[in-house]
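WARN  no MSA supplied for this record, continuing single-sequence
INFO  ligand: zinc ion
INFO  echoing inputs
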Amino acid sequence: MKKKTIFASLLAAFLLCFAYSCMQEQVDELDNESFYERSKPLIMDAMRKYDSYFPEEGIMELRSWKDAGGIAVKPLWQYANVYGDKDYHAAEFLLDSEKGFDYATPESADKFKKTRDRRYRTSQTNFVYLVEKKTGREIMFLMTLVPDLSYIESTKFKPFDKMSYLKRDKKYSGYIFFHNMEGRYVNGWRYSSGEITHTVTANEEEADFDIVSTRSLVCTTHYLVWYVEECKFWGNASGENWGWDCTSWYEYQPLYTSCIDDGTGDGNYNSGGGSSGDGGSGNSGGTFNGLALNCSLNSEGVQLLYDKIEEMKQECIYNYMFNTISGNKQFTIITTNPGMSTYGGYNPNTGVLFFQNNSEIPSAFPEEFFHLYQDWRYEGISQYLNTTGHPNIEFEVKVLHDLMNYMNCSFWGAPFGSPLESEYSNWLLQLIDKTPLTYNDIMTHKYNGYGYFDFLWSFRQSHPSGNYPINSGLFPALLQDVFSNSGCS
Ligand SMILES: [Zn+2]
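INFO  complex generated
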């Protein structure tokens, strides 16, 4: 029993000594008794608030972009940096983690591979606790710093010394990004010589059906290297001859998209609504009758989505879908993400629904709601994400959307953009003449010899999802459900 404890503390000490040696200066401050006395109340508040968030184990899961499982982390309360500015009291804590890990830019990672000098492979993730002085509001999140190679060298390998959440080096170059208390990526920024140059979006959106895979002039896709190291101590019973074994690997290759910032980037943790937020606890009852587990829209966003859903429920098919899905499938979280490159998106891996900003909610929601419904009807659509079947999933949504518009005498759809444009709209017009319109009609009716799967092939040529093959054995389960069971047509 005792040996086990020693083992555990050695392991923790070792992880600390390589992962956090750069924070030595701040650690030393704690030796100063008056500093500790002054800081103690805020540290205690941070501990209390953190524990209230994780009543069970007190362990967070820091996730890579792709949400492929997390690394267990928790704050080390004894390693605090306590400070403030005119608006906030702040306490930042080093993290203990089950494994050592570092993000590095590709340039730094290359330099590390050549030199084996760990100082090139360095990032720092802190737990940040803020108290807004005016309101007493408490805000918690994780902040990660990934310095550029040039900044690492220009600071003589002390790239974190002048960096905290509220006070940042005017010369900082590198990345700063934020994870929420669920360990999920929220937002981030790229700095060059202290100026924000890019907004950074994580790969969570990359995995979305509606993320267009082409690159614009202002956005580029990159990798950060996520280097993980696990070490174990060994020794005899008396503690002699101890040593350690480490294994390391590149567990993830996190992908992110950085877009040139339009000058509005504020460099802060922005959870929900696009302004400095508090992790989404401020929304007003916005889980929309159980459609979402959680919602981080601000009150304006909640109202817009609420109004949109009420409007949709006036339509028989939407009403059927809302009623059917209720209690069966939910969005995990509804949120805004100003950094994303499309207006809205649904990530079937995480169940997260995104809007670029509030004003996109009314137009972007129906498409993503269809995807949520598909996710349930197909018993998971992530298996088709960015692979065979991707065009099937997108085309089915388009057909349903267009049929519903045509049935309402609104002959507008997103342009088909293929040589079969007019054949497709004539096919739709003939379909809506059938009463009732059945699933079988949709699958078998032809206009000029063209039917559902012909239009699917044509759609694929003109749509971003066309980078992926059609699954000719995958039948449209959403259409089948709606036109067999809703009684609406
Ligand atoms: Zn879509």
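The chain has two domains: 2-260, 292-485.
INFO  checksum written, moving to next record
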